[in-house]
Amino acid sequence: MVVSSPSPDDGEPPGSAGPDDGRREPTMTLAGWRRFVDAPPASFELLPDRQWAALSGQDRQAYDEARISYHSEMIIVATTAVREVARQGRLLTLLNRREISARRGLIVSGQQTTGKTTALKQLGRTHELMVRERYPSRSGNRIPVVYVTTPPKGSPRKLAMEFARFLGLPPARRGYNTTDIADAVCQVMLAAQVDLVLVDELHNLNLATAAGEDMSDHLKYFTEHLPATFAYAGIDLERR
Fold first, then answer.
1. Residue 84, φ and ψ in degrees, nearest 5
2. Region at 168 (left for phi over 0; alpha for psi -120 to 50; beta for the rest)
């Protein structure tokens, strides 16, 4: 959420961002992802001491909450890892454009809290902004990037539903099997010209279980049926 300072004519204390301040939709939905991509850098304007001292109790509370919201915005630092993931990911999307099989993929692995999700999302954000710039007339109907997380103790059906939920498809009716949901997802993604799929929390996929093997096969199904580059992130994936 961008924290900005309205003009004095707005009738609100500087830093106030309205009743929805601080609320965010998850990036695992299309609306939430687009809001993440479109969000400008956070900004906040400090009041002069005299103007701050003149604030009423309620206005001062709103002002202080806005300052806290601003400081809670973690600025993304373009570390070597973030830059390398973005570079490699962009390179793979270019190499995969004319591939009809055996498309190259990317795996981001590391320990907890080392910035894997941040790097993955920055790759997606960079790619989507570049696609919008290149095809401005189609930016409204096109979905360049899909971002999902691997469900814990999941199944192929739950994985397919993660894709369906991001795309805003209605809940699957009773009697719809996994293949029906996957086919509907693939049709929508093909029509929306998705060319980068981000799959986070891949460590939730446990290949030691039958469900984990089925989910792995289902991911392969998506990679074979979609002309897109797949990028994954998870904890300690080399050993898992």
1. -70, -40
2. left
Is the pTM above the cut of 0.85? no
Extract the runs of DSSP E, i.e. beta strands, from the chain. Answer: 106-110, 145-149, 196-200, 229-235
Distance CA 28, CA 21 (A): 20
Each residue's pLDDT expressed in tens, for the chain with a length of 240 residues? 233 433 334 444 444 444 444 567 899 999 999 999 998 877 888 899 999 889 998 999 999 888 888 887 767 777 888 899 999 999 999 999 888 777 899 999 999 988 899 999 999 999 999 999 998 877 778 999 999 999 998 899 999 999 999 999 988 777 688 889 999 999 999 999 999 999 999 999 988 888 889 999 999 999 989 999 999 999 998 876
* Measured distance CA(53)–CA(60) in Å, rounded: 9
Q: Contact, 153 vs 17, CB < 8 A?
A: no
φ, ψ (nearest 5 deg) of residue 2:
-85, 130
Interatomic CA distance for residues 1 and 19, integer angstroms: 12
- The token duo for 104 is 């190259």
Phi first, then psi, for residue 197 (nearest 5°) are: -115, 120
